[in-house]
Amino acid sequence: MSAIFKNRVRNKILLNKLVENPLEIVKTHFRDKQHIGFSGFTGIGGPKVIPNALCEYTRHHHLNMPGSEKQMRFNLYVGASCGVEEDKMALENMILKRTPHQVGKQIRKRINSGDTLFFDKNLSLFPQELLYGFYNKDLTLPDPNKTDALPSNVLDIAVIEATGIDEDGGIILGPSVGATPEFLAGASKIIIEVNTTIKEMKGLHDLVLQKNPPYRQPLNYTKVDQRLGSEKLYIDLNKVVAVVESQIEDHIPDNTPADENSAKIASHLITFFKNEVKHNRMPKNLLPLQSGIGNVANSVIGGLANSGFKNLQVFTEVFQDSFLDLFANGSLDVASSTSIRLTPKGMSRLSQNWDSWSKKIILRPQTVSNNPELIRRLGCIAMNTPVEVDIYGHANSTCVLGSKMLNGIGGSREFLTSAKYSIMHTISTRPTPTDPYGITSIVPFVSHVDQTEHDIDAFVTEQGLADLRGLAPRERALEIINKCAHPVYRPILLKYFNDSIKRCNGKMHEPHDLHKCFEMYFNLEERGSMRAFKKTDEKLH
Amino acid sequence: MSAIFKNRVRNKILLNKLVENPLEIVKTHFRDKQHIGFSGFTGIGGPKVIPNALCEYTRHHHLNMPGSEKQMRFNLYVGASCGVEEDKMALENMILKRTPHQVGKQIRKRINSGDTLFFDKNLSLFPQELLYGFYNKDLTLPDPNKTDALPSNVLDIAVIEATGIDEDGGIILGPSVGATPEFLAGASKIIIEVNTTIKEMKGLHDLVLQKNPPYRQPLNYTKVDQRLGSEKLYIDLNKVVAVVESQIEDHIPDNTPADENSAKIASHLITFFKNEVKHNRMPKNLLPLQSGIGNVANSVIGGLANSGFKNLQVFTEVFQDSFLDLFANGSLDVASSTSIRLTPKGMSRLSQNWDSWSKKIILRPQTVSNNPELIRRLGCIAMNTPVEVDIYGHANSTCVLGSKMLNGIGGSREFLTSAKYSIMHTISTRPTPTDPYGITSIVPFVSHVDQTEHDIDAFVTEQGLADLRGLAPRERALEIINKCAHPVYRPILLKYFNDSIKRCNGKMHEPHDLHKCFEMYFNLEERGSMRAFKKTDEKLH
Predict the structure, then answer these.
(1) Which CATH number does the domain housing residue A36 bear?
(2) Taking CB atoms and an 8 Å cutoff, what residues of chain B touch A418?
(3) Per-residue pLDDT tens for B143-197?
(4) Structure pTM?
(5) Are residues B187 and B327 located together in one domain of the fold?
(6) How confident is the model over B69-76, as a mean pLDDT?
(7) Of A132, A403, A501, which is closest to B510 when you measure between CB atoms?
(8) How many CB atoms sit inside 10 A of residue A16's CB?
(9) Is A214 in contact with B378 (Cβ distance < 8 A)?
(10) A459 is in which domain, residue-wise?
(11) Same domain, A342 and A470
């Protein structure tokens, strides 16, 4: 037991539950087909010691081998995505079933090879459905006619990372909250990894655990900076079967620097925001911002930092490096999220300014950070990146070519369905080996629908911004094609649209030709470009 | 002025605004391309005198004729759908643009012929987007940096039906609320039709008008029978330009009697509910019920009336005849909706029991009745009928063959996205002229997506109930095909599924063959049956 560990675990009962050898924990508590919950959100704050021990145990005992009857595979739940440790488990084929979101080369490979069953779920809904008993239907829950108690048997084991435990037994979480409150409430057994390599993050969290209906109460937030929850998590200490020390750090890769195209997208958005303010559709300090992960999202926030807006507020699921610039120039008043996902550089920047900046950061459970009730009430500006959108405003956020899972729906759906401003942004084309414009982000009919035409207010590419508010489908098609599609795809998309109109006599609401709507994908498959690229065309561009 | 009218309009200022000749109102206030709001929801409580006068005026002056420059066409907003009067306007081609939902032969025809632009919107979101100024972007709104006032210029005219006006100027609405509160707040001019043929419905309404963000407050309902709003609507009386008497009744057609198949669907659902209660996933009195419109929905409620459940609660958008049976046998404690859509028979039944039954009915604005915040908190059981669903659980609620608009998304999306139990139900097949099973409700890939795989917990046909909770896409496909598809389509759907798996090496999350996923529609188009029906097959069934 390290001195720092003893210092961090100030509750005697839990300190006595220290187990030095994680393999012992694995051997004692883990069994094939269990339902397991891991803390963590977007690769931050997940357990590390136990997943590593699970992998070691599995390898050592030759489990999960093709043809072998000896299995140790789990129904694994993580708030959103775990870190590299989950990917190691995927490599050992330990994940039987997984929800609601994942990031990692190995886990994605297992899902798309058919080894791992995966279903993606809206991130604020997922922990509640788990506590409804929806994912393990053989269980009997506490009688709702007699008690408002949540079930404590929907998970066999919850494994969570903390940064400290107070004398009163209150758990001090780390840089992510995710679904940890629901996992701890819903698990029969709890294992706590206390990470001593990172700061004890007391004071950052605002933790609320809602009851199931008919006992659920309003989330009475009307401002981003309101705190209505507790700083620490209180749990049934009897359920804790082991406490371990972790000295393994999270690994967040560096961000790609903003490129010209994402800067253009940011600039279109800022022009749009300024016009909204001009017409008094938004206050001068805008409305609470939600921003997805990725290059474009980072650029947009970067653009905001240099555009003169003041007193901005962020209500999002992930706090990222780009927000630090807004803290640095004083334009961001408060940032609410469920995860601080900072690169090592970003984390050290935050550490240097901890006393002033950490006061402006609030970490909430994903049931709160992503809750439609609050997103709608606060009137958020939601900005996310799709795989592709179609001419009528449906978007695909998850399945490439209709079938291949990327990461899952994440928070994009709950934010875009409930926000006042629902915005999607992406670069209009991407290269293939044979065509620099081989893939268009704007297609006639998306191969998978996650966000529908009813959700999206604006769509932005480096070409421009399509303002879809109040437009009927045929108007939307022209707006999207003319403002957002890359010039090499405009004539192709217009031709599809006009041909479909001719075909759709008497069904002109949203003209489609189901015989031709997927042709671009077939071109890509057969000729390496969605525009049926031929060598001779190249000279044109 | 009739005696009863004078008795109903007890406010002197408004009584003085009586205009006897509605054509005068039309001539004075209505102009081409205005933004007009009509009260009404599901064909109930809409204005009648003014729409009829608008039609007369249009016909008389030969407006909107092909090639003519003389136009009188409107951007028309109705909470959901108006009655026959709107259809008369559609016949005169008076509707330039329409949102968020419509029902009627003529209006649908205009939309699908391309004469009328239509966009369907989630019903609780629509009135709020109108007050955001999203549908008329040239306007400048009140400065949100200085005031929480809602704009009063987003509509040129609101025309609403009322059943009375109190001395204090409070408007007593009739059998629907819909978007009337937002229309009256957002209009420059107001015209009130006081309908003297129906009962003055004082005491039925619970009216809340929310502010725009950043001023919006929680909807603090935690129970269906809570009343947090006012009984009457208070408006700026200066905006009222005319009050007229209406003696025209609403026309609701009789319901089709329940058939064997819809009774089977009801029975599957009741078995499902009983199992949920058994496992304590629901209390004995279930959770607040939302039920769509139509034959199947009616059957389900009818089935509930005979299944021994007590103390039921309804939180829905439309109160229909079938609920009266629940009142009659004492099993329904309270019904919240935004419209009482009763057949003449149902209305007279309610009238006979008015004193006891009306106390259990609460009419709310559609921003409340359909609000995701409340649907999620109360944990509703949402049940709606789609056009079709696909094997992975996506549903089409609006566009036949991807293009032809039926009625619009209505409340189905907000309820299904937010409910604890999101259920869709439909008959598994429908006949075509040449095949008694020519159309299947379960297809490989829906031709339009309104509800996604992330929304639906259970799907029910007369064949059975598919419980999709916690299932990954490939599991869902088998559950839906085996439990819900009609036996004549099961092998065809299974073949599609298995062939797609073979095709989707490395993209096995949601296997599809985009070359073949729409083949059933082509069969229908070319051969009159989705199963490529040939005469010789007929003997088999």
Answers:
(1) 3.40.1080.10
(2) 372
(3) 999 999 999 999 999 999 999 999 999 999 999 999 999 999 999 999 999 999 9
(4) 0.97
(5) no
(6) 95
(7) A403
(8) 9
(9) yes
(10) 260-487
(11) yes
